Amino acid sequence: PPLLVSVDAEMIARVADVTVLIVEAEAVSKAELQKAASMLERLKPKAVSTILNKVDINAGGGFGKAALAEFRSGSVAKPSRLTSPWLWR
Fold first, then answer.
1. pLDDT, tens only, 20-78
2. Which residues neighbour 81 within 8 Å (Cβ) at sequence distance 6 or greater?
């Protein structure tokens, strides 16, 4: 059951082996997510897992965009020189 609108969810979270928090991208506000996290911290479930659902994979940038392009092409991109272990010695 939904955590923020159901007392049943609180009762189940206290006794369940794992509590799964499912968050719909672009539909849940930051405030709602913070409230759910605070509630889970207060309930202290044994384990918590989170699923981010309905993510627009084409809207992102950075690492996600590069990883998706790599997956779609089937080839591995050359690593950046900044990740070289020699650079950090």
1. 999 998 898 999 999 999 999 998 888 999 999 998 877 766 777 778 888 889 887 67
2. 87
- Predicted structure pTM score: 0.62
- DSSP per residue, the chain: --TTT-HHHHHHHHH-S-EEEEEETTTS-HHHHHHHHHHHHHH--S-EEEEEES--TTT--HHHHHHHHHHHHTSPPPPPGGG-GGGG-
Burial of 58 (0-12, 13-18, 19+ CB in 10 A): exposed
Q: How far is CA 85 from CA 19, 53, 77, 80, 89, in A?
A: 39, 35, 18, 11, 7
